[in-house]
Amino acid sequence: MAKILVFTETTGDNVKTVTLEILGKLNGHEVDVVSISNLSESSITELAKYGAGNIHQLKGNHLEHYTPEGYSQALKSFIDGKGYDYVFTGSTSIGKDLIPRLAGMFDAGMASEVTNFIFEGDTFAGTRPLFAGKCLAKVEISGPKPHFITVRPNALGLAESPSAGAGSKSEASVSVDQVRASIKEIIKGASEKLDLTEANIIVSGGRAIKDASNFKILNELADVLGATVGASRAAVDSGYAPHSMQVGQTGKTVAPSLYIACGISGAIQHLAGMRTSKCIVAINTDPEAPIFTKADYGIVGDLFDVVPLLTQEFKALLG
Amino acid sequence: MNIFVCVKQVPDTETKITPNSDGSFIETNSIKWIMNPYDEFAVEQALLIKAANSGSTVTVLRVGGIKDTEALRTAMAMGADESYLVEADDNLDSYRTAKALKGAIEKSGKNPDLILSGKQAIDSDSLQVPQLLAQMLNLPSVSVVVGFEQNGEELTLKREVEGGTIEIYSVKTPCVVACNKGLNTPRYASLPGIMKAKKKPLTQLSLSDVGVTAEDQRVKYSNFQLPPEKPPGKKFETGDNVASVVKEVVGLLRNEAKVI
User: Fold this and answer.
1) Is-contact A256 A199, C-beta < 8 A?
2) What is the ipTM of this complex?
């Protein structure tokens, strides 16, 4: 049984789902949770349900916003001397930026964006995609402990019957000396929707969308499904969508339950970025488009005919 | 300013990846190698900063196989002044890579004012090296940067996070900046640039020259394999019956795939 710490972020009053995915997968080990953002009562209940033992809330200066130096110093001072074997968190914007710096403070190794893992006794063995998912490899960590691991959101899934933990909450003061790169301003994105990397359903548009304004019909479908809208590199490079929406090898790698590809032919870089989607629907006028080789359901047709009908049909079903 | 840029040579994004026979890495023989696409933004940014700060130098660093001099020559053809190659395996882990980069910077004898890199390499996809290097050098870092303004030692950097939200950071040099697509438009190397690059200094170092030992290994990869193929899906020709096809697919999503 390994002694494990899971760092959690929050969205509004809730902990990020990836935290619960990780906790469920760690059942059978001694698992604590640590947070810097405030945890609501409902979050504590949720964390306990999925197996959290002690839940630590960190307080201190320079922690109002995320910064790599502030958060890494806070976690370093909390972790020191506690004897954790592993520290896990989600591979989110913060996780990706923070954990390498924190691992560096311990001269420790780190496995990024694992999509599955097992423990052989106390020893971690992970699986992670490389080359944007064109291949998979086993990853093992050695050297000083704790070892650090980030997990791709939506990859593990939620445990169906997790063993509950004690869920006892305590506060700890941490000291942060210096933050040299500090946030002056945060400009909120246009969308309040989940990021592509965390979304459960994604509706993506390709070159065939022809114009930025035509994303409207994809947004309408996404609204009905509670989905996030993505784009192919061709659509981004043509100026129809910003790079933050790009799915693929030079964009985001995604793992939703449902991926609806509209007017995307399926270049190898795009297929790499979305192939771990659990169910793929492709809509394209070209019956020979490579996207159809990866699709569970392929619709040979014009996205401008098909997408509004899909919206209508889902509205009838879900409304 | 002493500007350093870390670059990596990676398989072209068009490449079909094949694991090697013992699963220890991939087949690398017939691969077309390119400069990591995100590193091109870092090189371009370095050249823009150099142009705005007279007397600056741009030094390009690479840890990898001997063929990787190509990425260094490309960066020098774009306008970088000199480069260092630390010779190593292609699949070196992030910890040793960062330590080797730190060693190469120290070997150059120049104090870095700014260290730039891509936000990630598109082969190992680890997103560790810039932050690790910053920690090893005790410098601040900002990653996934899509906007860069300089006012003397003060930098204002835009970092892209979830949902298209932008965080605006203020930081003083020296620091480490990891660049994202959208930051700038990388220039092409000109023919005179390519000719000149052949004469620019390229220093080769070994891992032991930069103080990296076998004990520095932190991550081991094995069992490289292709992801499992899905069984073929169902394909529907819409013809004149778009509405009925859509109805059928929606029904399958609910009752067969159970994702709605």
Assistant:
1) yes
2) 0.96
